[in-house]
């Protein structure tokens, strides 16, 4: 708690190398209910890189009960020989090199913050990134102190037969009183944020992977016994990731064993601890009966992401937390490329762009906007953001495009070779790109330093056989950054003729080019026979907001003919946004849009067979948040009426076509391949339109209810089952309550399915869902200490149900504030992350803004440092 004091700020400009290095760390962890003891034997030495030679050793600690400190074999006396200053241990007058042994007691059983060592469903596990290791023992808890770890764990053998840590197992045996121990040795020096430990009684799925150089690696996936049948997809994803990283990036795995442990209580998705990844169950367990197709895709990409960190993050790590995107942006790029190679590249690209544009852009345009490499933070936990991850990945992607595939590979090889075993910066990464390619990326690096979404405005004219495109870039001010300099913006483009064919752009007949912008305003000319339709920002070649005044004919041309998947999708989105804008502020009705949209939609449906997943994306209306972000001030109820009204109206107008899709794509048996997933996705979109029309009373609900009830009675998989439930419940169709009840009963013992059950209810559109959410919070299966459950109810209500969250009477805001307060006392990271849901405050119409501001202001006194940082940004 901050006691009214402002949080201390950490600044990149103040970076100093560590005063002491820790070449060797031996940990002895004695796990006992209520009295866990951690003994750390550290070898320390002065860091020659620190010229000012501080003679005080400062070690980080948090929630530690210090029992003894022994330096070079001599027990130190508190007060005289060392002191505790706040959470830190300070030992003055230390020698050049010495050994230090500390013993602390900790209480994992009481740790609901889920940082450091904690318990989840009867097992012990850890989460040390970013600064959790200091809750286990005193240590220089910063990523640029790399140490060789040997870890011995002692525990009761009956309750915790499995004892795991990083590296390779080197010793194990029984001890007195039914206890046992295991020792693990990690030969690779690592920062303490990559430390992990697990003790529990878990089931194991084992396999092996033979690396390119012929070494056998043991693969072990652990979960609770009842979940053993849900590990196959993760294992398969892991093996494919290992092979892919060898092939595409030349990266081979380095230890004899790679392990993943599934835990129910986890703040994030997963964690790349060296050789011992720890995963949120939601990102590793998958079974067709309990997991949707989206869930399967998520498991594949998160398993890959964490595995890829073994090189991008672990072998080469970050010098300081400002460089977080060095590992995260690069690793997201790598996992996106992996998913693209495993699935349809065009579909994955649109999914990634959709996510960026609809989630990261709002972050970059709101009070939390920060550069990919932030200059300062209060709590680093608050900077595990979409900007650092997703925009960071786009920055790596632009570099890969600027260099081309071959040079990019040479540059990453150089990066891994040059910096192996080191903690480095984003500049070091870019320097490798420059060295290999000879490009000057000095201006490009502004992408790391400048916050905000650049707006790229394009104007065109056709004069004397020449088509001229004028590009103007402008990055709006963001908190602390009023003025921005022009960025280097690669704009991939093509020009389409009246029939939608790409025109040759130069003498060599190339039909696509990349214009690299460097100035605030630039013009390029292309000699083409007639005024074309520009296909701009192909593949979403830069993370900018593109403004070009497309007319409807041009959008129809792009949607019908463009070979670029992103541009087709973007054209569809622009048509929908335009229609919705005419309803939200133009005084038109959803019915007025039908004549313009139905031919377009019919055309997409007619070609749906070519790629059902892509068709599903093209047929999906923008979310209410996306529409709301284009209207100032924000009137969430108006936006809701427009989007839901348009969906119902299109559902009615095209009912026959939706029925044909829904019936034609209905499967009799489950198939798990990508093509089947694409078909299910399209079927769900069709059912969504029909259900909206039925819910609005615009078509007879009876046949649809019968169809959905059939599906629920004998679903082929969870995608189908949950899709049917959602269609009934969100549209309040006859029988929705009974269906919910039956689903809840059927899946009451499957926590991840119950998360979905809670989530479906929390996203029922309409202000009355706030009351429903209150009831869900009182449900016996709701747990405040279980982040997945908290997210299922509260985060989905706040972030994915605008018509409820922004209930006109302010009840959604009051629930939000109460939940934040309660969570902040349990798990400040989760509270702070959830608080971001208030970031649209300043965009709201005044009445709502006042109510949300009042609710949040009350939370400021006594908020944790995590929550305070977010609240201050939102409210100031
Ligand atoms: N490095 C992990 C994400 C992660 C970050 C922080 C955590 O606790 C605060 C946990 C996990 C990743 O990128 O997957
Ligand atoms: Zn990561």
UniProtKB/TrEMBL annotation:
Its EC number is 3.4.11.2. Keywords: Aminopeptidase, Hydrolase, Metal-binding, Metalloprotease, Protease, Zinc. It holds the Pfam family Peptidase_M1_N. The keyword Hydrolase applies. Coiled coil: none annotated. Residues 452-549 form the Peptidase M1 alanyl aminopeptidase Ig-like fold domain. Residues 103-194 form the Aminopeptidase N-like N-terminal domain. Residues 234-447 form the Peptidase M1 membrane alanine aminopeptidase domain. GO terms for biological process: proteolysis. The keyword Zinc applies. One of its GO terms (molecular function) is alanyl aminopeptidase activity. It is an enzyme of class 3 (hydrolase). Its cofactor is Zn(2+). Residues 553-875 form the Peptidase M1 alanyl aminopeptidase C-terminal domain. It catalyses: Release of an N-terminal amino acid, Xaa-|-Yaa- from a peptide, amide or arylamide. Xaa is preferably Ala, but may be most amino acids including Pro (slow action). When a terminal hydrophobic residue is followed by a prolyl residue, the two may be released as an intact Xaa-Pro dipeptide. Aminopeptidase N is involved in the degradation of intracellular peptides generated by protein breakdown during normal growth as well as in response to nutrient starvation. PANTHER family: PUROMYCIN-SENSITIVE AMINOPEPTIDASE. Belongs to the peptidase M1 family. This is Aminopeptidase N. It comes from Alloalcanivorax marinus. The gene is pepN.
């Amino acid at each position: 708690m901050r006691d009214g004091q402002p949080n201390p700020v950490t600044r990149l400009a103040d970076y100093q190398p560590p005063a002491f290095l820790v070449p060797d760390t031996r940990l002895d962890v004695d796990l006992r209910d209520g009295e866990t003891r951690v003994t750390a034997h550290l070898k320390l030495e002065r860091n020659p890189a620190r010229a000012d030679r501080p003679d005080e050793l400062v070690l980080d600690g948090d929630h530690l009960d210090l029992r003894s400190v022994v330096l070079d074999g001599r027990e130190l006396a508190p007060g005289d020989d060392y002191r505790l200053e706040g959470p830190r241990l300070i030992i003055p007058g230390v020698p050049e090199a010495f050994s230090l042994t500390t013993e602390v007691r900790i209480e994992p059983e009481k740790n609901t913050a889920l940082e450091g060592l904690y318990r989840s469903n009867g097992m012990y596990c850890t989460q040390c990134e970013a600064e959790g290791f200091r809750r286990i023992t005193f240590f220089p808890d910063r990523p640029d102190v790399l140490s060789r770890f040997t870890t011995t764990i002692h525990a009761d053998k009956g309750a915790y037969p499995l004892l795991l840590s990083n590296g390779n197992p080197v010793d194990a045996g029984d001890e007195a009183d039914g206890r046992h121990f295991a020792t693990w040795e990690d030969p690779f020096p690592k920062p303490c944020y990559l430390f992990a430990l697990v003790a529990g009684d878990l089931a194991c799925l084992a396999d092996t992977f033979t690396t390119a150089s012929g070494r056998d690696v043991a693969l072990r996936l652990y979960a609770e016994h009842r979940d053993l049948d849900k590990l196959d997809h993760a294992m398969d994803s892991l093996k494919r990731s290992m092979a892919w990283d060898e092939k595409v990036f030349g990266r081979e795995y380095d230890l004899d064993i790679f392990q993943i442990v599934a835990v129910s209580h986890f703040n994030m998705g997963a964690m790349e601890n060296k050789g011992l990844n720890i995963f949120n169950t939601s990102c590793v367990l998958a079974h067709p009966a309990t997991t949707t197709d989206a869930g399967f895709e998520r498991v594949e990409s998160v398993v890959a992401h964490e595995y890829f960190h073994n090189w991008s993050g672990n072998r080469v790590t970050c010098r300081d937390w400002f460089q977080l995107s060095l590992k995260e942006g690069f690793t997201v790029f790598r996992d996106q490329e992996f998913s693209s190679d495993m699935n349809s590249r065009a579909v994955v690209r649109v999914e990634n762009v959709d996510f960026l544009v609809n989630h990261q852009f709002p972050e970059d345009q709101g009070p939390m906007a920060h550069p990919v490499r932030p200059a300062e933070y209060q709590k680093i936990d608050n900077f595990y953001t979409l900007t650092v991850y997703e925009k960071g990945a786009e920055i790596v992607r632009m570099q890969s495009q600027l260099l081309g595939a071959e040079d990019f590979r040479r540059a990453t090889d150089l990066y891994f070779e040059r910096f192996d075993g080191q903690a480095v910066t984003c500049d070091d990464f870019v320097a490798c790109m420059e060295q290999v390619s000879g490009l000057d990326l000095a201006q490009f690096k502004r992408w790391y330093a400048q916050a905000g979404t650049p707006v790229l405005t394009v104007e065109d004219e056709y004069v004397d056989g020449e088509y001229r495109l004028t590009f103007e870039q402008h990055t709006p001010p963001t908190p602390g950054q009023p003025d921005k300099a022009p960025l280097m913006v690669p704009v991939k483009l093509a020009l389409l003729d009246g029939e939608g064919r790409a025109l040759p752009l130069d003498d060599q007949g190339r039909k696509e080019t990349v214009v690299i912008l460097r100035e605030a305003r630039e013009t390029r000319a292309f000699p083409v026979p007639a005024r074309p339709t520009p296909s701009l920002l192909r593949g979403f070649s830069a993370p900018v907001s593109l403004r070009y005044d497309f007319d409807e004919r041009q959008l129809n041309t792009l949607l019908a003919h463009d070979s670029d998947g992103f541009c087709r999708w973007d054209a569809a989105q622009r048509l929908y946004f335009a229609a919705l804008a005419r309803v939200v502020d133009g005084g038109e009705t959803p019915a007025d849009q039908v004549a313009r949209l139905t031919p377009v939609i019919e055309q997409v449906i007619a070609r749906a067979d070519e790629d059902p997943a892509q068709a599903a994306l093209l047929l999906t209306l923008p979310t209410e948040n996306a529409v709301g972000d284009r209207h100032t001030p924000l009137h969430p109820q108006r936006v809701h009426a427009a989007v839901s009204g348009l969906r119902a109206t299109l559902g009615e107008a095209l009912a026959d076509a939706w029925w044909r899709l829904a019936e034609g794509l209905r499967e009799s048996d489950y198939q798990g391949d990508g093509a089947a997933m694409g078909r299910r996705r399209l079927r769900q979109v069709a059912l969504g339109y029909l259900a909206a029309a039925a819910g609005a009373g615009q078509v007879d609900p009876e046949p649809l209810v019968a169809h959905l009830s059939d599906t629920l009675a004998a679903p082929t998989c969870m995608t189908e089952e949950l899709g049917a439930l959602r269609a009934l419940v969100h549209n309040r169709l006859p029988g929705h309550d009974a269906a919910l009840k039956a689903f809840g009963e059927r899946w009451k013992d499957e926590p991840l399915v119950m998360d979905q059950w809670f989530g479906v209810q929390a996203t029922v559109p309409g202000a009355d869902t706030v009351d429903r959410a209150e009831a869900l919070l009182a449900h016996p299966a709701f747990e405040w200490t279980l982040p997945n459950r908290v997210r299922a109810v509260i985060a989905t209500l706040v972030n994915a149900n605008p018509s409820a969250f922004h209930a006109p009477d302010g009840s959604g805001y009051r629930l939000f504030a109460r939940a934040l307060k309660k969570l902040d006392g349990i798990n400040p990271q989760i509270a702070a992350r959830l608080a971001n849901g208030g970031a649209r405050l300043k965009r709201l119409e005044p009445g709502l803004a006042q109510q949300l501001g009042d609710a949040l202001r009350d939370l400021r006194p006594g908020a944790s440092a995590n929550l305070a940082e977010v609240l201050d940004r939102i409210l100031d």
